Amino acid sequence: MIEPLQKVLNQQDFLETTKQELKRIYQYHDDLSMLIINFDNLQQIENGQLKQNEISQILQSNLRYDDFLADLTQDNFVILLNSANTSAAINVAQRLYRILSTISFMSHQNLIYPIIKMGIASYQETDRNIENILERAQEALAMAKHQDHNFYRVHPYDASKRASISNSYIS
Predict the structure, then answer these.
(1) How far is CA 4 from the centre of its chain?
(2) What is the DSSP letter of 7?
(3) Which terminal residue of the chain, N or C, has fewer Cβ atoms less than 10 Å from its own Cβ?
(4) Half-sphere exposure at residue 149, Cβ-oriented, CA atoms within 13 angstroms
(5) Dihedral (Cα; 41, 157, 164, 121), 10-degree rounding
(6) Phi and psi at residue 111, to the nearest 5°
(7) CB count, 10 Å around CB of 58?
């Protein structure tokens, strides 16, 4: 078993680890949420891999010990938030956005600020595998990417399970 936040996981290790976490959720009736963070313009930055490593360090230093961080693609990170319902995931998204929106990178003598989009999904009793939650988080991210501003979205299914939730701009 990989220790939480010991390293940034690849997609395969992440899926295997989250399957174990889902079993724990079933057993203890706990909460779990996923947050996918996309950096739309990270590939425009020279030394993109180096910048990706910097971002992963920033993310790791701002998560709890029992959360898991994975590098999904060149510009997507996914975070498994243990014992976190949708409200808690929104709070984490807002906090991370405030931190990430302050970073910038020099590329070809231009200052580039990452365009940050986030998708959020939470464990529901109808979820039978971790891929259901990941798929909803990816769908929420796709919805967020259709917005003009830096934006997070909670998947509508998860939002409907929480009466007072609203998708809002992060400020």
Answers:
(1) 15
(2) S
(3) N
(4) 8
(5) -40
(6) -90, 125
(7) 15
Q: pLDDT per residue over 1-60, tens digit each?
A: 444 445 789 888 998 999 899 898 888 989 999 999 998 877 767 665 667 788 889 999
- Can you give the length of the chain in residues? 171
Contact by Cβ (8 Å): 81, 143: no
pLDDT in tens, 98-149: 999 998 888 788 888 888 999 999 999 889 899 999 999 999 999 999 987 7
Alpha-carbon distances, residue 60 vs 1, 5, 8, 91, 153 (angstroms): 18, 6, 8, 16, 22
pTM reported for the whole predicted model: 0.86
